[in-house]
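User: Second chain of the day. Same drill as before.
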Amino acid sequence: MNAIQMFERVLNSGTRTTIYKFGLLIGIVDYIIENPLEPPINNFHFIPLFHLTKQFLAHYFPLILEDIRQGPDLKEKSPTKIRNLILDFVDSKESKLQIPFPLISENINQLISFIVSSENLPPLLTKLLFDIRKIIVDQPLQYIRNVKGDQVSLFGLLSSKDSFQSDYDTHRETGLKLKFSEIKAVENWNELLEKDNLNLFFAHQTFQEISQMHFWFRDVLIKRWAQECIERFDAQAPNLLSLFDLWKKTPERDSVAIKQYRLLYLENCLKICLYSNQIVDKDLQLDHLFPWSRFPVNSY
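Assistant: Same format as last time:
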C-alpha cells in the first residue's frame, strides 16, 4: 500500500480520530516540506513528537480562537481538550507577560516562529506544548493505525527507552510517561527536542513519496479538513476557508539569517551558479536554487 492509499484510508475511516487526525497528518507533511532531502538512517526517517506538537498548535490555534467547532459530532457538548488548553493559555495573565505580541489567530505564524527562535522559552508555553503532546500520544496515535480492524502502516513509533523490536503500543505507552518535570527547565526549542523520548518513523520509500508530492498532500488535507468542518459542524465556509489560508500563507523571510547564509556561501567559495554557470556576486539571492514560492523555509 503506497502513501496516497494509506492517507486515503485514514481520511475515509477512523471516526474515533476525527478530532485530531487532520492535525497529525498535516503535521507530518509539514515536517517533510521543511526537510525534503533529509538522509535516511538505516533506511528510516524519524520525526520527534514535539515537531508534531508545534504543528498541532499552529493548525488548531486559529480554529479554536475563531470558535470553529471541532469534535466527533454536533451532539457532543463537552469541548475538546486542546480547545481548553489553548483558551486557558491565551486567557492567562502569565502568557500576556511572557509572549511579546497579542495572542490572536492572525499571529499564529509569529507564535510558531517565537517557539523555534526564542532563547528563553516561556515555561507556560513549554507546558502548553507538553500538554498537547500528551493529547497526541493518548488519542490520535492510539487510534489512527486501526482502520476498520486493519493496521495502517504509514508510520511506526520508537521510544528511546524501548528496543526497536518492541511493538507499537509499547513505544506509545512509554512516550506517555514523559513528565513535565523532565522538560520544565529547557531554555529553547532545540533542548526541548533533545528531551523528547518518542519519535515517529517512516520507511525511506514512504518519506520519498510524501516528499515528492508534499504540497499536493497538504492542499488535499486542508480541503478535506475544511469540508468536514462545514458538513459535520455546520461551520461557515467563507470564514473557515480564510482561516485555512492562514496556514498556506508564505512566511516572511528572516533577513538576518539569510545574510549570514549568504556570507557562509561566499566564504566557502561557492561563487558559480549551478543553473547558469555564471559567477554570482555578493548580492546573490539565496533562494536561487530553491524558489521561495515553492520552499518557504528560512533554514539553510
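Residues 3-248 form one domain.

User: Great, on to the next one.
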